[in-house]
Amino acid sequence: MAQPKIQVVEGSIDEAAVDVIALKYAQAPYGADKLIAALLAEAGEEPAYLKPRPGGYRYLPGRGAVSARHVLLVGVVMLQQFGYKQIREFAKKVLTALAGEAPSIRSLAVTLHGPGYGLDETEAFEAEIAGFLDAIREGDCPGDLQEILVVERNRGRCARLGRALRELFIEVDEIDTSSTAGAERLGSVGYESENKAHVFVAMPFREDMDDLYHYGIQQAVKDAGFLCERADLATFTGDVLRWVQERIRSCALLVADLSEANPNVYLEVGFAWGCGVPAVLLVRDTDCLRFDVRGQRCLTYRNIRDLEESLRRELRNLAGGGGVAGRA
To answer: How far is residue 148's CA from residue 110's CA, in Å, rounded to a whole number?
Structure first.
């Protein structure tokens, strides 16, 4: 069986001109699956049929509502429980389901899962790629499959994922999944991810702050050897605070940007202090600080580059002084 190529492409999943687009259904509609389900319902699909239970799936015609010929919806656990391991299992499930339903398909498009609600971007991406490779190497995937496209609307993330893919497989353009490069790195991704030390970032989850997070905070955190996570409180349904509290309680360090005086950020800082989790406080202007943290040491920054350099230096100093360690 020929090995399918994997590529990261910029675009919208509903416009992917492939044989199949595959999405998760996390027992409630979110993001891309919410969009696709709405389009299919408008085209005449029964809405109740678009909600597979965990472990199940629905293989549906595109009905002209999307550019793909067919849509695969895979039922997974609730979003709060959908971590790195579940992402890897989801990706494998996509290919094993299609091996039975559509063995002759040639092209598949998917989206990235995890970073949109707070998981580490690179770790989530590698877990998804690892799941595909699990099915491919076991021969449990469509025999005629030629390409898997990871479709990403955000241009910056698309570029970052492309670099991550090239770093895994040491290729320039297309990624050859028959290559053994990167196999060792992907071996435990997903399954051991929860045991890796992570930093939780408390800051508003807004598009206008994405560059601050990705280029000012995330890179410095990852260079220090940690996974980097933050939570979009508006994404979840159900007991969101329990999920956030678990991620804070188990993190090695909390990094909080207090520049916006956001009440959720202050709440997360207070919870971290209550759990004995060390915190690094960031602020553009100390005049933004509220009275309850004005006595605390804060890293002030002027721009994204200044923030990255200051945070990298702070993390290095903390690591050298034993102030940051992995937490169970």
So the answer is: 8
Task: Give one DSSP letter per residue of 31-80, joined into a string.
Answer: HHHHHHHHHHHHTT--GGGG-PPTT-EEEEE-TTTSSSSEEEEEE---GG
Q: How far apart are CA 117 and CA 81, in angstroms?
A: 12
Secondary structure letter of residue 47 according to DSSP = G
Residue pair 95/69 in contact by the 8 Å Cβ criterion: no
Our measurement of the distance from residue 327's CA atom to the centroid of its chain's CA atoms, rounded to an integer in Å, reads 21
**Which candidate, 73, 70, 63, places its Cα nearest to that of 43?**
63
- Please report the domains of the chain, with CATH numbers, ordered by start residue: 5-186 (3.40.220.10), 197-320 (3.40.50.450)
Q: Cβ–Cβ contacts within 10 Å for residue 114, how many?
A: 22
- Torsion angle, alpha carbons of 75, 78, 81, 85, to 10: 10
Check residue 173 and give its pLDDT: 46
Q: What number of other Cβ atoms are within 10 A of residue 155's Cβ? A: 9
Q: Say if CB 256 and CB 298 are below 8 A apart.
A: no
What's the DSSP call for residue 194?
G
| pLDDT tens-digit map of 83-134 | 999 999 999 999 999 999 999 999 999 999 999 888 999 999 999 999 999 9
Residue at token pair 């919870």 = 271
Which pair of tokens denotes residue 98? 């299609």
CB atoms within 10 A of CB 144: 15
Whether pTM > 0.85 for this model: the answer is yes
The token duo for 78 is 């609730």
Structure tokens at 169: 């497989």
Gap between the Cα atoms of 145 and 288, Å rounded: 54
Q: Give the residue among 121, 328, 119 at the shortest CA–CA distance from 243.
A: 119
The CA-based dihedral angle spanning residues 290, 291, 294, 300, taken in that order and rounded to the nearest 10 degrees? 10
Strand intervals (E) in the chain: 5-10, 20-25, 57-61, 70-75, 107-110, 147-152, 175-176, 198-202, 227-229, 253-257, 279-283, 298-300
Distance between the two ends of the chain, CA-based, in angstroms? 43
Say how many CA atoms lie within 13 Å of 253 toward its Cβ.
24
